[in-house]
Amino acid sequence: MARSLALLKLPDDIQARIESSEISPTVAYEVSKLESEDQQRAALVQGESRSLTVARASNQVRQRRGTSPPKTRGLKQVFVTEEGFRVTVTASKKGTYDEIEQALRVALEEVQTRIRSGLQLF
Predict the structure, then answer these.
(1) DSSP assignment string, the chain
(2) Structural domain boundaries, residue 100
């Protein structure tokens, strides 16, 4: 519903281009996020609207607004011990508990090596 309303707020000439299938509604929605009609038209011209994908339109909108791209969703799991220690496992990609277990085993081996070496935290 919000996307439909956003498309209705676009200038008439851009709406006509949507109706004639020159611009996809999803691309137009991304362009509608720009504040001024001039910026919206410029984004469509710069992106050669026929070959403008949603990803490219979104990227152009972010550049024109000066915002950074959204963070990629990966993995974050936090484990808390009874003693109050927090162990956090993060990855830039989604993973499984088997992969988390493997990462924790590698980390445990590193901790054990440091203990054997006499390394102190403080």
Answers:
(1) -HHHHHHHTS-HHHHHHHHTTSS-HHHHHHHHTSSSHHHHHHHHHHTTGGG--HHHHHHHHHHHHT-PPPPPP-EEEEEE-TTS-EEEEEESS---HHHHHHHHHHHHHHHHHHHHTT----
(2) 75-116
Q: Which two tokens stand for residue 94?
A: 């989604």
Which tokens belong to 40? Answer: 């919206």
pLDDT digits (tens, 9 = 90+) for 12-38: 998 898 899 888 888 888 888 888 888
CA distance 74 to 78: 14
Say yes or no: 61 and 79 in one domain.
Answer: no
Q: For the chain, how many structural domains are there in total?
A: 2
What pTM was estimated for this model as a whole?
Answer: 0.48
